[in-house]
Structure formats: C-alpha cells, structure tokens
Design goal:
The protein has helices at about 45-55, 60-65, 180-190, 200-205; strands spanning about 20-25, 30-35, 40, 55, 90, 95, 100-105, 110-115, 125-130, 140-150, 155-160, 165. It is α+β, with helices and mostly antiparallel strands. The protein has a five-stranded antiparallel β-sheet, with helices on one face. A three-stranded antiparallel β-sheet has the order 10-11-12, with helices on one face. Strand 11 (about 155-160) and strand 12 (about 165) form a beta hairpin. The longest helix has 12 residues, at about 180-190. It is globular, with a radius of gyration of 19 Å. Residues about 195-215 have low confidence and may be disordered.
Amino acid sequence: MSFTPADLNLIDPTKGYAHFVLYAEAQIGAVGAAWNGTASIERHSRYVREWRDRLVPCEPNPLHTTLVHHRDIPRLFDPCVDDDKASPAAVSGSGCVCRKTWYDPEFGLPVVGEHYRTDGAQIDEWTYTTYAPLDLRPRDAFASLIIDRVSGLFWIRTTTGMLSLLPERGSRGYEVGYEGGGPTAFAEYLHNCSPRAAGTPPSAICRRGRTPTPRL
C-alpha cells in the first residue's frame, strides 16, 4: 500500500476516526506500533494525575492488545477484585492483578492500566502503558515544555492548557543527562519547538531533519 501523510488521520480523533499503523511479526506473535513510541508510567506525579483524570474507561479493543504481551491478552477481560471477588485476577483474597482499559479522548490512543495489590492492601498501585502521540493536533499550538522529574516523563502544554505526552516519532525515546540517542532526540525536539515558536501550529515548526544546537 502506498500513501502520503495526507491520506491518514493519525492524531485528531475529533474528526470521528483516527488511523493507527501497526507493526507485526506473525511468526513470533508480536504486534505493536509501527510509528508511535510506547510510554510506561509507573510513578504518579501531578501531571500524570491530570492526564489520568481525563481518560475514558472502555472495553478492551485490538489496540489495547498491542500494549501487553500476547499471553496477557485474556487478562484484559478479567474484572478487578473490587468488582468481582471471584475474578481470575484475585490473589489470596483481596489481592488483585487485573488490567483495565481506557482511551485518551484528546488523541484517541489506548491506555492499559495494570493493578498490583497485595492481600491486605499493604501495596496497592497502578502502572499505565500507552502510546505517545506522533504530533500535536493541527489546531493545537505549543506553549510550554514540562520535564516531570517525578514520573521521568516529558510533557507539552498547549496554549489552550491541554496536557500531552511529548510527541514522538519512530520510538526514539527521550532522555537527558548523557550523550546518546535519547538526549539527541530530546534536543532536536526542543530545537524545533523553541520558545520563539510558542503559539505556532506544530506542523509549521516540529519538523525532523534539523541539527540540534549545542547550546541546548
């Protein structure tokens, strides 16, 4: 199949639909995102809570299955022990290892939450897995960058106040503090979305192929 970017709606579910491009290796049962980077959220900061509070619960769909190991797909359908004491996810009474599924209404991206609670709730925590968007939506404009040291994630705030994981293409991943691919990708994004470009549509400033400035 041949296509140009204009043929696919990849980031704006407000149009009523959004495409998603998968990568699959059928011989080993591996399926994942071809373009979107994966984000694992373990430590809960104020920004994680803000993002989590807008998620919409939903039934598991094929995109959720790409966020878990193929052997764990059936567990997406097991209820939490809070909802069903006889759930297959129950552990030693009140313990729980269920999964729950949501979607992000801003980008239409799937979210899987993994519950880990010991019997007696000495430990009761959720971790989340999702995909980073490929870009901000066409109507969004970059306002500020957030380095979230609690969660270890990078966020963008738009001029309307919407919070987004830092857009990422090619699953390069962002890091800081050493010389390598992650910090280089992060510096490149900062270079492309410099403060003087604040308020500019992302399609006009966030292009790959530029060289990051050494001063970043």
